[in-house]
Design goal:
single chain; 282 residues; alpha+beta; N-terminal domain of MutM-like DNA repair proteins; Helicase, Ruva Protein, domain 3; 2 domains; 4-stranded antiparallel beta sheet; 6 helices; 11 strands; globular; binds zinc ion
Amino acid sequence: MPELPEVETVRRGLAPYIVGKTIRDVEVLDARSLKKDSVKHFKSTLAQRRITGIERRGKFLWLILDNSPNVVVVHLGMSGQVLLEPHSSQMHSHVRINIALKNASREIRFRDQRLFGGLHLDTLQGDIPASVSHIAPDFFDTRFDLDSVLKTLSKRTAGIKSLLLNQNIISGVGNIYADEALWLAKVHYLTPGNRLSKSRLETLLLSAQEVMAKAIKAGGTSFDDLYVNVNGESGWFELELNAYGREDEPCSRCGRLIVREAWSNRSSYRCPRCQPKPRTAR
Ligand SMILES: [Zn+2]
């Protein structure tokens, strides 16, 4: 499932090609990928509009249109991909929405196997789409307030991993980067937020930021093969993962074998020596 580094990689891939270009035509091949709008309204809102920017918060992207109150919000969900493909190339059967651009050899194709992702029209509240405004700023947002996030985390009794994944506290962190940050900071995923000192919480947050910054540089993680950049290429950050997906491999810090444990309908990976279970956690 794409997390912040993967979505940011898509944004960076799209921006230089699409910003400044005008939308020629929109083809909706599967209306299930339009999360809120009718096909007719979506098409007429985009047609002939120039794209003036592409922004991101957490795992949400949005296109800004010239002379329009609307923005186009894109969420990749579990398996969504945004590809820039030649107009002449054959469309994959999972392409749900195709946006053709004027004076451009490539078009924007939204491909989604499992249909959890999608596009919708929205209006800005300040400079954030209304439907995204409940999502907290992410680590790379100038509005990210480390002190206030630390204060929030230190009051909560929930396990720290579920707090890291709570998009209303910090956005963009998912299962992969939470496990990596917890490994780096030597924290067990079940440790209640209020049982961690401010300095350990700060170390953890800075670890998450560091891991995601490195992942952006590596073009993201293509762990489940569903994530690719706009050119259809995989990211290579999985080569640098220390915990996630490393079950039964030695911890690169202490040599103990990494374990995989069931957690909240998903998995958590940790080093039993570097990240021992806290006594307070069930
Ligand atoms: Zn270890």
